[in-house]
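Quick one, T. Sequence first:
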Amino acid sequence: MHILLKSARIVAPLSPLHGQIQDILITDGVIADISDSITAKDAQVIQGDNLHVSAGWMDVFAHFCDPGQEYKEDLGSGTEAAAKGGFTAVMIVPNTQPALHTKTQIEYVLSKTRYGAVNVLPIGAISKNLEGASLAEMYEMRQTGALAFSDGLKPVQSSGILLKALQYVKAFSGTIIQIPDDTSISGHGLMHEGIYSTQLGMPGKPAIAEEIMLRRDIELAKYTDSSIHFTGVSTRQSIELIAAAKAQGLKVTCSVTPYHLLFTEADLMTYDSFLKVNPPLRSQDDVDALRDAVRSGTVDCIATHHQPQDWDAKQVEFEYAKHGMIGLESCFGALRTAMPDLSLERLTELLGAAPRHIFGLPAITLEKGAPANLTCFEPDAEYTFSDKDIASKSRNTPFLGKTLKGRAIAVINNKQVHRS
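Structure tokens:
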């Protein structure tokens, strides 16, 4: 099979081809030629008004709900959503039914997704059944193919369990992922604690619930000399704590979501349940701090926190609505809309090179003879996000009807092409 990218601007900062507009020919999953002008019979042609190409993008925190809640999302629809958003790899959380807490569950995910255009990379549970009481079969899951370990949407509350997990993963240079959230403080909150929560009459989630947990986990990572990745970081103080930990040389990395860069607590004045997320939307000052951290490099990568919910879970009073929004398909457009000043080099690092480096995957090279793992996109395309832009089974997104800037066109991976 031949795939031909016509007049594509290459975004690959470490390559001598960076910034050049070239034709790229892919044959049987391998980059066969890169030159000014290529013609190929029977090739699938990908072109656009302002076509760009980079190494394939990778998401580090998404929920595919399979097994157990396939009516929200399954492995098939999840990978379709990822491909539509421009991702060639997605790490999925273990919050399924049953949880991804044994090698059998890891094998289930890998066997159902092995030959697709999107590499699905399971995150193994830290604790059995995600109960936070005792460690799961982490070594066996790692041997089977679990890329990292986390209790996902249920961050580990026990210091002792997290300490043991951090010590355990050192044996195979593994990484623990945590949403920093002390649920004993934040458990009853519906939104960020502040002026708007008072005005709306809703119980708040104080920023200190995130910051206390982050301080604890940084100290545990320091004590164990182990690797921890914080995702869904949402406050200015959290960013300062992470920057200080990095300055000490600790093995600490972090990711933020596109929606925490775009929306604030003020957007909840309409009680839009699609904006009910955890961690919650924070203040404008927090958003400004997150954006600065993305620019400076304190934030290492982007995590979509793709969390599908069925219609009934969101079309209820705000108090009873479930947390989360889908985010794979809208990720790039939301990022470009939130931070139009961010260079494409930095964007593709956040979406591609950085997550692979953090979780120990080989870097993708864009050169002749290399396997084709590529994302094609138009960075300046403006469009109204609509149902046709969604491949997920769920529709819980605040972006419907909104104008976004930047969209994925196609992904090429595992000898396959998937057009958006």
